[in-house]
From TrEMBL:
This is Putative efflux system component YknX. The keyword Coiled coil applies. GO terms for biological process: xenobiotic detoxification by transmembrane export across the plasma membrane. It comes from the Bacteria.
Length: 399
């Protein structure tokens, strides 16, 4: 072999060895998952379980000690106000004619009359407040048309008007129930003073105070009952609200008027509602892990045009998502791309095949996505779920 060929051969061998050494000693890129930042909607919400509840429940009780005849109604049966006879009472013995019983019945009539007057006063006050709120809404509507007031102030007045409307409705029910109780007490006195001792002539019929359905029957068989003993519970299943018990630290972030999205109720599409009330008093509840938690009830009204679905009933479970903040467009980043360096939020951008540690300022965060206020821009490629092998300046390659 000539000298020139030997030089070429050894040069080739040395070049191959040098290339192999370079490949062996050069750093290998870290395999990573990436995502591209872009503008999009972001919603911050509080999620918890809720149960439906009939807004107004009525417990029908015995007005005086007597003998209850068997109740023939079943749970779910429909009843009509002042028409449906719910139960019949008969005297148990001549003690119904006792002067003491007569005096007690007269006292109950006077108490029922006072309750009726009090209920009427509450109704008058609620109607006056509603009329004032209606005038205020009319005035603000004109100011809003002239751009002399804010949309927020108008919506607050509108929410106040809705709350006062419900207050008038509840006060009206209170007057109806007070009148019904007064009629019962007067009927009991008439029954006590009746000269006819036959059980059939002295039978007292208890009629339904509302239009609705039977929710629960406490006493079904014939038995002797005492005054005030509950007989059955009535309500209107079409008039539902939702009660959501949330942690007290979450309740302070909820405001009346916040929209609510209800899922997992049994239907294909979610239901919509609005927060009507955050109860001012909390309670202690033991979690499934045995931890005591302070919780607060949040009352939600259905906001769908058709009201609550007919399939829903009392004490049905729904998953509620209370929206505390939302926007249609902002720069969004997955929270899996964020990490902390002391008090500073950081993320890794991919630039020229290398990871670049970038400080960012974070706004709202819902646990899955976060709002970027500064430090990144739309179109930036970021690393999600960065491992311990990823650091500033390291070579990376997308999986």
């Amino acid at each position: 072999m000539s000298f020139a060929k030997k030089i070429v051969l050894w040069s080739t061998i040395l070049a191959l060895l040098g290339g192999a050494g370079y490949l062996a000693l050069s750093p290998r890129p870290v395999m990573v998952d990436t995502d591209v930042l872009q503008n999009g909607p972001l919603m911050v919400s509080i999620e918890d379980d809720g149960v439906t509840r009939i807004r107004e429940r009525y417990v029908v009780s015995a007005p005086l000690p007597s003998r209850l005849l068997r109740i023939t109604w079943d749970v779910g049966d429909e009843v009509l106000s002042n028409q449906t006879v719910l139960a019949r009472l008969e005297p148990t013995n001549p003690q119904l004619l006792d002067p003491r019983e007569i005096a007690q019945a007269q006292a109950r009539i006077r108490a029922a009359e006072q309750r009726l007057e009090s209920s009427k006063a509450e109704l008058s006050q609620a109607e006056a407040e509603l009329q004032f709120a209606e005038r205020e809404m009319g005035r603000l509507r004109k100011l809003l048309t002239a751009n002399a007031t804010s949309q927020t102030e108008f919506e607050q007045k509108e929410l106040q008007f809705r709350q006062l409307t419900e207050k008038v409705r509840a006060a009206t029910f209170g007057v109806d129930i007070a009148e019904y109780e007064l009629e019962l007490q007067r009927a009991a006195l008439i029954l006590t003073e009746s000269p006819d001792d036959s059980g059939k002539a002295m039978a007292l019929e208890i009629r339904s105070p509302i239009n609705g359905r039977v929710l629960r029957i406490y006493e079904e068989s014939t038995t002797v009952v005492t005054a005030g003993q509950p007989l059955m519970e009535l309500g209107d299943p079409s008039d539902l609200e939702v009660v959501v018990d949330v942690l007290s630290r979450d309740a302070v972030r909820i405001s009346a008027g916040d929209r609510v999205i209800m899922n997992q109720w049994g239907g294909a599409d979610p239901l919509h509602g609005v927060v009507r009330l955050i109860e001012p008093s909390g309670f202690t509840k033991v979690s499934a892990l045995g931890v005591e938690e302070q919780r607060v009830n949040v009352i939600v009204d259905f906001a769908d045009p058709g009201g609550n679905p007919a399939m829903l009933g009392d004490n049905f479970r729904v998953d509620c998502q209370i929206v505390t903040w939302s926007t249609d467009e902002t720069l969004v980043v997955p929270t899996s791309a964020l990490y902390r360096d002391g008090p500073q939020w950081m993320l890794f951008r991919v630039k020229s095949g290398r990871a670049v540690a970038t400080p960012v300022q974070i706004g709202r965060n819902n646990g899955m996505e976060a709002e970027i206020i500064s430090g990144a821009k739309p179109g930036d490629q970021v690393i999600v779920y960065p491992s311990d092998e990823v650091s500033d300046g390291v070579l990376v390659r997308q999986r």
